[in-house]
Amino acid sequence: MQITLYIREIAFHAMQESIITFDNEELVLEAENMTVHYGPTLAVEDVSVQIPRNAIVSLIGPSGCGKSTVLRCFNRMNDLIPGTSVTGNIKYQGLNVYDDEVDATDIRFRIGMVFQRPNPFPKSIYDNVAFGPRVNGLTDDLDKVVEESLRRAALWDEVKDRLNESGLAISGGQQQRLCIARALAVDPDVVLMDEPASALDPISTQAIEDLIRELSQEVTIIIVTHNMQQATRVSDYSAVMMVGEDRVGHLIEYGTNEQVFGNPVDPRTEAYVTGRIG
Question: Residue 12's pLDDT is what?
Fold first, then answer.
């Protein structure tokens, strides 16, 4: 019994050493003991992670380990999946986003989302970008907001003469940047990206990665990616998820890219980033 307790204590301290923390004034998002069920199925358990301002954080790990589940908790997108329950605290600027008085729609404006496949609305390029500001009641300076958002998404020069054309008529890479412009139009603090380049060709992927680095000067970005090279290229920090023997997703390591990829604490992290598991 004493040996078992000793082993558990060693494992606990190793986990503490493998998770980076920040001062409160640096944080924009924080999860404390986040646990997610889909109906009776436990998907993710006891995830605690801190996200600093104006950083790029990659969520990495094998398929099915809970990366997208964790990502969707930050702006309550999991609310849209019937039977989902989330426990623990998820804080945005110190506010628990799951408190009863918090409006999920407001949270989603402050914490935008870009999905794996481009999903422009079946509207014009202009109306795609103007959608969020209009919902928020903005009627003045829409032209300025649309132009600035498209410029921030590095798309303005390519579509400035096509604003009345359908957002579905441009290329896949342009559509993804249009979706980013749509998220930026409401001036969010955080943008969540779920495999934003996985459906794109290498040239479009490079454009998205360059854009992510540029946008990090203004907003915090959390990106789910299976591409280790992409994580090393674009991220400041990486959080490693893994499925345990219980078939549940756990956060096993979180640190700077230099530490996670160069000197990982958990042997499972080393095995994953070197391609021995995954």
Answer: 42
